[in-house]
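ok trying again, last paste got cut off:
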Amino acid sequence: MNKNSKLVEFVKQDYLSRRQARLSLERQWQLNINFIMGNQYSYLASNGSIREDEKQYFWQEKEVFNHIAPLIETRISKITSNTPNVTVVPASADEDDLESAKLSKEILKSVANRLNLSDILKTATTWSEICGTVFYKVMWNTNSGKMVATDENGNAIREGDVQVEVVTPFEIFPDNLSTERLEDVKSLIYARAVDVDDIKNQWNVDVESEKVYSFSLDTNIGNLGGLGYDAHINKIANVEMNNHCVVIERYERASKNHPNGRLTIVAGDKLLFDGDLPYINDELNMRTFPFVKQVSNYMPGNFFGVSVVDRLIPLQRAYNAVRNHKHEYFNRAVLNVLAVEDGSVDTDALEVDGLSPGKVLVYRQGSKIPEVIQNPKLSLDFDAEEERLLNEFKTVSGVSDMMSDSYAQYTNLSGVALQLLAEQDNARLSNAIDSSKLATKTIAKFILRLYKQFAVVPRLLKITGQNNTVEMFYWNKNEICSDDVVFDTSSDLYDSLGQKRTMLLDLIKQGLMYDEDGHFSEYTRKKCLDLLGFGMWENNVDIHSLQINRAKEENLATLKNEKLEILPIDDHKIHIDEHTAFILSANIKDKANYKQILKTLLAHIEEHKKLLKGEENGELGTTK
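nice, full thing came through this time. structure:
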């Protein structure tokens, strides 16, 4: 056995042992998926397999009243709606760093639009809520992006671009299930089923197909329903995938023997790749795993998180039992249960026809008349138990009436009380929301670091600014100077858009938005309209912003030794402030033409001051 064969065998055995150690968790995830889909009479058998409970009697009611699915859908909606946008903090106050941070922010926006990142986050959150954990794989796709050249065979060479994929917990195998953080895992296996033709195209290696099973939808018929009818629901079933093979990617962190980490990829009995970790995506400019973890609820001492579905399953089983027992009682009340003396009537005909309206019931002379057995009155305990279970659903899931109901039932509460209730609802989902926010920020950092590593060819980026202005940027990896990603709002979990608008209106009513002269300035009015959602109302042009942009363009022009010109339409006060801020904050002392820049700007500021003084004295400001 050669060296490669030993490595392949080692990776495959490592994968099998990790899968066996995690088998019980996989069974629980499968059970959760079944309950979400409505297959709620399934259970985990003693041997670890998932089985389904059969009817004991033909008349038994076994209908499903799924309350888990809408609760999980509500949680997913709440979590995804509370994930804010991200921005990039500049490395310093230097003008170059400010522009680099602005460019990095626009790059993230462009990637989010191109990948439809909001849908990716929603899909991942769905897996996280059902199984307790989900992963994102942030990688560089060399076959993506614009074509920049062709090789000797005429194949297109593309500039490459970032790709983000959702990885289910079924495909991730850590070396230690007791390690809580992904950053503390020493080695990680990512295993998935791939078509052998795709393996050939990507690695140029021929691999034989093998037996690979995956989850698929199936229909469960005959087990469910009630008296006189059958019901069907969807369930998870194992299906064999044709022409597929398991690709095992084994990631190792940096060590003494492998200072850049190690990535080994195996499929079948073939070694597809063995080398350094491909991406420099660590905080310390080191190579690490390309995965980001998101959990629903943290569990101390466990790598994988816990799903709320685990806790809801016993409640759902109890609720189904209560509702079905009530329906069985109603069946007996409506269809009646007869007590018949043996041989007194034709029981075969009675079983077929029942007691239909107007039926003539013939019984043997001298025998006892058949009588209907009266059912005892339905106990109020059934209703009390049903109501208790419904309330317990909300308690366990963290979803209250305000989040789950589509109508307002708190009409007798004040606005402050309703706001407090809304804050309490949000607080109960804080663990899942915080994990989603942290994952979003980490993904953004990984994206910027991948561009900084691979964006060698100049790229074109179109930025749409205020008042529909369009800026075109050519950039490469050298333009990305900072990957310090933060959320672009200082608001926490409880600050919704509606609450911000209400607070703004309250501030205006209290007079806190007026200046020292008691005036509501044009600039403040524009900002208030932006926050209220009317920033482009009647296509108003923000003159103040345009003046600031023109002053910034003049600042950049001085760096190129271009001549500055004052126009009659310039707002001298705004220009003076912007030029002064540029001199004080920008690190222009390191520029070779620092003295010339300073001289030009000071002379320009002095000219603005003269014209401003002339306007204040009633004179007409002119320029030569």
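cool. Residues 308-335 form the longest helix (28 residues). The radius of gyration is 34 Å.
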